Amino acid sequence: MKLYKIIALLVFTTLSVSAQQKITIEDIYMGSFRPKGMDELQSLQNTNQYTILNAMRATRSMQVDLYDFATLAKVSTLVDSRDFPELAAGIDSYTFSKDEKMLLIANNSNQIFRHSFTADFYIYDLTAKKITKLADQVQEPVFSPDGTKVAFAKQNNLYVYELSSAKTTQLTFDGKKNAIINGITDWVYEEEFAFVRAFDWSADGSKIAYIRFDESQVPEFSMNVYAQELYPTVETFKYPKAGEKNSEVSLHLIDLRNSGKDTTVKLGNYSDFYIPRIKWTNESNVLSVQVINRHQDNLDLIFVDGNTAEAKVILNEKDKAYIDITDNLTFLKDNSFIWTSEKDGFNHIYLYNKSGKLINQLTKGNWEITGYYGLDEKNKMVYYQSTENGSINRDVYKIGLDGKNKTRLTAKTGTNAGTFSPNFQYFINAYSSATIPPLYTLNDSKTGKELKSIVNNDALSDKLKKYDLPQKEFFMLKTEKGNELNAWMIKPKDFDANKKYPVFMYQYSGPGSQQVNNEWHASDDYWFMMLSQMGYIVACVDGRGTGFRGADFKKVTQKQLGKYEVEDQIDAAKVFGNYAYVDKSRIGIFGWSYGGFMSSNCILKGSDVFKMAIAVAPVTSWRFYDSIYTERYMQTPQENAGGYDDNSPLNFAKLLKGKFLLVHGSADDNVHVQNSMRMIEALVNANKQFDWAIYPDKNHGIYGGMTRIQLYNKMTNFIKENL
How far is CA 427 from CA 440, 447, 567, 681, in A? Predict the structure, then answer.
C-alpha cells in the first residue's frame, strides 16, 4: 500500500511538473505578458469627461476617443487617423487647447534623448473637423490660453504660429546647436530635472517666459555611430560632467503686444545656479520661478512681475543635503499656493499665502506624499497619493485645506493611482499589486466607493495560471548592524526547505529609488520567475539611500555614494547565506545603471560573499557622470575627491575573485561607455579574467530588434554557468 502511494505521488508530481509551462525570454520581451491599460488617459478640464488614445486593429488606425466619467460610456471619437491622409503614420500623442476645442497631434516622432523628441504636428479643429499642419519636426508646441496661437521650438529657437492668418513669427534668432538653446532644456536639465519645454504662456496670452541656455562653454562628449555605412559618423553633444562648466542660464520675457520685445529678468545675486521650473501664476502678469544653487541645498521660489521684470523671493527652502525638484506647485484663485516639502523629515503638503507666509501644514506623519493630484477649490479638498499604508504601498487620499477630514479613498492594499474628473466628483483608480495585474475602476471621490470596472486583466491572470508562478514574499530584513531594510524574495514553486539553493540578488539602490514595492510585474520580474523555475531563489533588498522612508534614511548616503548601499547589499547577502536553505557559496548580484555601479562594487568589495555579478551600463566613477545628478549627492570632485574615489570600482579591480559580466551600449548618451571601457582597462591591468559585451549604437536602455532577447539570454546563460 505504501509503495502504491509513493508511485502515485511520483506520477502526480511528474504530471504537475510537466503541466507547468516554462517562461521563455522570448515570451517576456516579445510582449506575451503585457497587461492591458488605458493609453494616453487624459482628464478634460471643462467637461466631466476623459479621453484615451486607442489603437484599432481592425482598421489599423489610431483614434482619440471621448468617454463620460459618470457612465464610462464612449461619447464619441474625436479624431480617427484613417480619416486624414496627414495622419497616415498614426497618432503618437495629443494635447488640448485650454477651451478643449482643438487638438495638437504629433506623428512621425523622432526621439532625441530620454524625454525630448521632434515630430510633425497638426492642429485639429474639433468643431470644423479640419486639420492644419503646424510644422515639420518641431518641439513642444503649446496653445496660447485663448487658443489663437501656438508657440513651439525648432532648431533651438522659439516661434509663434497664428491660427487666423496661418502666419509663423520667429521670436528668437541666436539658437545654434551646441551653443545657444532658447526655450528647450539642455541635455542635463532634461535628464535630471525631467522637463523639456522651458517656456510658458502668461494667463492672458500676452507674454512668453523662457529660459535661455548658453552651453558654448560646456565640454563636449562624442560618440561613434557605426550604423551601416563604410565610415562611422560622430555624434557630439554638450555634457557637463561633475565639477565641469554648466550652461549659463538666463530668464527672459517676450512681450507679444510690444513687437516681441525680449527682456532679461534680473533674478538676483546668484552665481552658478539652476532654473529647474518656471510657471505663470493665475495672475496674468506674475511668473513663478524656482532658482536653486549648484549644491542644490538652497532653493528660492521667486515671483516676477511680467510688466516690470522685477523679481521678489517669496519662499526660501534649505536642506542639509539636497532639495528634490517636483511639479507639486498649485496656485489658488487668490494666488496662495500649495507646495510639498521634506522640511519636517518626510515629504508633506503645505499651504502658503501669496506673500509666502505659511498658512497650514496639511499633512503630517512618518510617511511620504508620493503624488499630488490637485485641489477642489469649491469643496476645499486636496487629493494626493501617499505611503500611509506602508512604504511599499500607495493609496489615494483626500484632506481639507484646514488639514482635517482626511479620508482614504482606496481600499485594496498595493499600488493605487488616481486620475480625477475636472469637478473632482470621480476618479479613475489604477490598481495593481504583486499578485493582481492592473485594474482600472471608476471611484467616487467623496467616499472612494468603487462604482464600475473599466479595464481588467483577467485574461492575463488566466493565461498565467498554466505557468504556476511563485509569488513575491515581502519582508523586513535586519542586518547584523541592525539596519532594517525592505526586501522581497521569490522562491521556486517546488521549494524544499531541506535543500540548498543559489540566490540571485537584484537591486538598483540609487538615491530615492524603490525596487521593493507592491505592484504588478515589470519585465524583469518575469525573468526572475523564469530563473525561479530553473531552481534559483531571487531576492531584492532596498538598502539605505533608497526612498519613501523619510529624509534621514534617504540622505544618509550624502557625499559618499556607494558606501552604505554596498555595505547593505553585502550584509543582506550574509543574512541570506545564513538561511538553512541557501547555499552561501552561490550568491550572485545584478544591476543596471546605478545598480550596475552597485553590482560592480559588490563583486569587488564583497569578493568573499558574491560568487558572480552582472553589471549593465554601470557608472564606474562618478567623475564621469553629469553635474546636476552627481553634485546633488556628492558636491564636486574638487570639494569631495575622497567621496568619489573611495567607492569607485575602478580602484578595486584587483579584488575580483568571482565571475563578472560587464555590459554596455556604445551609444549610451547617459552613462557613457567610457565607464565600462575604463573598468575593462582596470581589470586588464589587474590581470583579472571577466566577460564583457558592447552593443553597437544602443543607448542606455539597450533595446531594439532582437537586442533585449539576445542580452537576457546571454545573462541567463552566464547565471547558469556561474551560479
Answer: 10, 11, 43, 55
Angstrom distance (rounded) from CA 668 to CA 625: 12
| CATH code, 517 | 3.40.50.1820
Average pLDDT of span 82-97: 96
Q: What is the pTM of this model?
A: 0.94
Same domain, 135 and 204: no
Residues 480 and 583 in one domain: yes
118 and 181 within one domain:
no
Residues 130 and 198 in one domain: no
Query: Is there a domain that residue 404 lies in?
Result: no
Could you list the residue range(s) of the whole structural domain that residue 524 is in? 472-722
pLDDT band at 14 (very low <50, low <70, confident <90, very high): very low
Mean of pLDDT over the chain = 95
Domain count for the chain, please give it: 3
Provide the strand spans (E) within 578-709: 582-592, 612-616, 659-665, 691-695
Q: Are 437 and 535 in contact (CB under 8 A)?
A: no
Is the CB of residue 185 less than 8 Å from the CB of residue 195? yes
Alpha-carbon distance values, 350 to 314, 359, 360, 532 (Å): 14, 8, 6, 46
> Are residues 111 and 163 located together in one domain of the fold?
no
Give the active site residues: 593, 668, 700
CATH code, domain carrying 184: 2.140.10.30
Q: How far apart (Å, rounded) are the C-alpha atoms in residues 340 and 565?
A: 27
Of 366, 398, 356, residue with least CA distance to 379: 398
Classify residue 440: in a domain, yes or no.
no
Whether 505 and 646 share a structural domain: yes
- Per the structure block, which three cell numbers stand in for 452? 464600475
> What number of other Cβ atoms are within 10 A of residue 513's Cβ?
17
645: three-class secondary structure by DSSP: helix
Residue 373 lies in a domain: no
- If we measure between CA atoms, which residue out of 687, 685, 695, 686 comes closest to residue 663? 695
Read out DSSP for 32-51?
TTPPP--TT-EE-SSSSEEE
Q: How many CB atoms lie within 10 A of CB 41?
A: 16
| Cβ neighbours around 681 below 10 Å, total | 12
| In a shared domain, residues 123 and 235 | no
Asked if 126 and 154 sit in the same domain, the reply is: no
Q: At 346, is the secondary structure helix, strand, or coil? A: coil
Q: To which residue does cell 476618479 refer? A: 427
Does 418 map to a domain?
A: no
Q: Which residues contact 24 (CB under 8 A, 6 or more apart)?
A: 530
Looking at the predicted structure, is the pLDDT value of residue 15 above 80? no
130/442 Cα distance (integer angstroms): 33
| Share above pLDDT 90 across residues of the chain, in percent, rounded to a whole number | 96
Look up residue 64 and give its three cell numbers: 482619440
Answer for the pair 654, 98: CB distance below 8 angstroms, yes or no.
Answer: no
